[in-house]
């Protein structure tokens, strides 16, 4: 499938999706969001893929929703069109792990997109923010809900009300990102993380993703019960037999996603 606003490459069980609108700092327009949702769906359905790596350019992961595309819209347009609602639901439906590699600007919808990913590796030059307030709007892809869950109310309010940017170091301290690495090493380090995930059992990785995400949607008791059932069900897989046999035989496991 030929895309215009992203590139996709599958190598060694990792699908690397790169946002590719360099002239607009990867601003999220309708074309890009549609292509991204489609590429993620294809990666999820592709048996050769065990992990997705989502990245942008050195200058920007994404500088937010495309202001040029939004500026003239009225309430009826964004309400009836449900701007990016279907795309966000499609991204949330992806069951394989998604690693985000973030360099440069990660703002507005870009920051919200990073928060939809499972692991976020940031270069030490990354800048995170929810500057929608400076445009007379608020976040619309879940940022008012996911940012406080990640960083707490006080810092989330600071970000959403002032529109200031956070450095990568602050973002790591605040638990918005998983790890910070030197910007020059970001591509290699993030690829290594995705590769390590891709070496694991996909069945267990999908179960882990589903279980951790459930923590944000349910009570502790229900979440723990959900985890126990998934934990127990993994004992029905060949990968569990292989993983434990490999440990006992002191060799690397060969997972077959069965
Ligand atoms: C459209 C954008 C853009 C955006 C940058 N560009 N961000 N175009 N939408 N969000 C374009 C600029 O217009 C410019 O193109 C080119 O990218 C380079 O940007 P500059 O501003 O010249 O670069 P710089 O001076 O380095 O400043 C970088 C920046 C700034 C700080 C990131 O571009 C910026 O503040 N961007 C907007 C960030 C923002 O407010 N995001 C939130 C959007 S609302 P031209 O052609 O002019 O040279 C949102 C809502 C999500 O995300 C919810 C949706 C439902």
From TrEMBL:
<dbReference type="InterPro" id="IPR018376">
    <property type="entry name" value="Enoyl-CoA_hyd/isom_CS"/>
</dbReference>
<dbReference type="InterPro" id="IPR029045">
    <property type="entry name" value="ClpP/crotonase-like_dom_sf"/>
</dbReference>
<protein>
    <submittedName>
        <fullName>Short chain enoyl-CoA hydratase</fullName>
    </submittedName>
</protein>
<dbReference type="GO" id="GO:0016836">
    <property type="term" value="F:hydro-lyase activity"/>
</dbReference>
<dbReference type="InterPro" id="IPR014748">
    <property type="entry name" value="Enoyl-CoA_hydra_C"/>
</dbReference>
<keyword id="KW-0456">Lyase</keyword>
<dbReference type="GO" id="GO:0006635">
    <property type="term" value="P:fatty acid beta-oxidation"/>
</dbReference>
<comment type="similarity">
    <text>Belongs to the enoyl-CoA hydratase/isomerase family.</text>
</comment>
<dbReference type="InterPro" id="IPR001753">
    <property type="entry name" value="Enoyl-CoA_hydra/iso"/>
</dbReference>
<dbReference type="Pfam" id="PF00378">
    <property type="entry name" value="ECH_1"/>
</dbReference>
């Amino acid at each position: 499938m030929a895309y215009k606003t992203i590139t996709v490459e599958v190598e060694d069980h990792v699908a690397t999706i790169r946002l590719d609108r360099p002239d607009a700092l990867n601003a999220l327009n309708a074309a890009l969001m549609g292509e991204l949702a489609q590429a993620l769906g294809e990666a999820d359905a592709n048996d050769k893929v065990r992990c997705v790596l989502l990245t942008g350019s050195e200058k920007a992961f994404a500088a937010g929703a495309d202001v040029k595309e939004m500026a003239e819209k009225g309430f009826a347009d964004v309400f009836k069109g449900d701007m990016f609602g279907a795309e966000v639901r499609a991204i949330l439906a992806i069951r394989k792990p998604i690693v985000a590699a973030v360099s440069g600007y990660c703002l507005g919808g870009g920051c919200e997109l990073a928060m939809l990913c499972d692991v976020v590796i940031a270069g030490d030059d990354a800048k995170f923010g929810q500057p929608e307030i400076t445009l007379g709007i608020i976040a619309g892809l879940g940022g008012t809900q996911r940012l406080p869950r990640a960083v707490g109310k006080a810092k989330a309010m600071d970000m959403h009300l002032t529109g200031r940017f956070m450095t990568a170091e602050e973002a790591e301290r605040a638990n918005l990102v998983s790890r910070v690495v030197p910007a020059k090493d970001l591509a290699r380090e993030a690829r290594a993380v995705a590769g390590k995930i891709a070496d694991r059992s996909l069945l267990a990785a999908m179960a882990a993703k589903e279980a951790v995400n459930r923590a944000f949607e349910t009570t502790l008791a229900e979440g723990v019960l959900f985890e126990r059932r998934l934990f127990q069900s993994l004992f029905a897989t060949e990968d569990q037999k292989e993983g434990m046999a490999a440990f006992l035989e002191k060799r690397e496991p060969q997972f077959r996603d069965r």
